[in-house]
Amino acid sequence: MIDFTAHLEDPPVTVPAPRRRRFDLRATALFFVLLALLLSLGALIARTAAAAAERRPAWAVILLLLGSAGLIACHRGRRLSTRTLLRRAGAALEEAAETAADALDESPLAVATPFDYTALDPEEFERAIADLCARDGCTDVEVVGGAGDLGADVTATAPTGHRLVIQCKRYTDDHKVGSQDLQRFGGTCFTVHEADIAVLVTTADFTAPAIEYAAQCGIVCVDADSLQTWHTGTGPRPWEYLG
Questions:
Q1: Does some domain include residue 150?
Q2: Does 124 lie in the same domain as 99?
Q3: Domain identity same for 99 and 122
Q4: What is the biggest distance separating any 2 CA atoms in the chain, rounded to whole angstroms?
Q5: Contact, 231 vs 132, CB < 8 A?
Q6: Are 179 and 209 in contact (CB under 8 A)?
Q7: pLDDT tens digits for the chain (243 residues)?
Q8: Plot region of 207 (φ>0 → left; ψ -120 to 50 → alpha; else → beta)
């Protein structure tokens, strides 16, 4: 007798063996590219934040918020494709660079290399100081030095809106600006030239009595070292000393 029930039994189920994930060279390369971009972004934000914190504390807070937003975006997008992450990281890097440039537009860092101002003659030195003022946002910049200038070599309106009166002393290292120089300038800078901020800038240094007199009168003294930091953008501008 034929047993028909034998044909009704379920066939044996074959469970496929788990497939081993193949090594994807392209995805791995993209991952390391993404990692490099993120590290570059972090380094850029860190350097910019450190520089901005020194001069513009408010911008440091903005950059910190930008960095935090970037980290949150990366965390939320960790399940996205590598290509999408790479595209977003590139956009974030570009945005951070543009924001950093805007933040430091008014206070450029190391925009120039040190310059030997002693190589200039007195008239060229006055023009160079006027150019620094114009570069850093001053308006109505004029070189007024010459016979009968009564101590004013450069006048301008600072970005703060104050009237700026500058006397330039192109001296050698062994010729310091003395108290008599400051007294002559102090006798005219405020009363005659109506300065809001009076500055004496030199390629040399100041004597101790000169510095003491300037402090009493409210005159800003810019020596050779301070001039170089102003020139390179790594130090304050003259109108920022009294801010």
A1: yes
A2: no
A3: no
A4: 137
A5: yes
A6: yes
A7: 555 454 555 555 555 555 555 555 656 666 666 667 767 776 766 666 566 556 656 655 565 666 666 556 555 555 555 566 566 656 665 665 566 555 555 444 445 688 999 999 999 999 999 999 999 999 999 999 776 678 899 999 999 999 999 999 999 888 999 999 999 999 999 999 999 999 999 999 999 999 999 999 999 999 999 999 999 999 999 999 875
A8: beta
* Full residue range of the structural domain in which residue 130 is found: 117-240
Residues 123, 213: Cα–Cα separation, whole Å:
26
Number of domains in the chain: 2
Domain end point (choices 37, 70, 103) = 103
Select from 103, 128, 151 the last residue of a domain. Answer: 103
Of the candidates 224, 220, 210, the residue with the CA atom closest to the CA atom of residue 190: 220
Treating both helix axes as pointing N-terminal to C-terminal, what angle do 208-217 and 179-186 enclose, rounded to 10 degrees? 20
**SS3 readout for the chain:** CCCHHHHHCCCCCCCCCCCCCCCCHHHHHHHHHHHHHHHHHHHHHHHHHHHHHHHCHHHHHHHHHHHHHHHHHHHHCCCCCHHHHHHHHHHHHHHHHHHHHHHCCCCCCCCCCCCCHHHCCHHHHHHHHHHHHHHCCCEEEEECCCCCCCCCCEEEECCCCCEEEEEEECCCCCCCECHHHHHHHHCCCCCCCCCCEEEEEECCCECHHHHHHHHHHCEEEECHHHHHHHHHCCCCCHHHCCC
Q: Supply the CATH number for residue 225's domain.
A: 3.40.1350.10
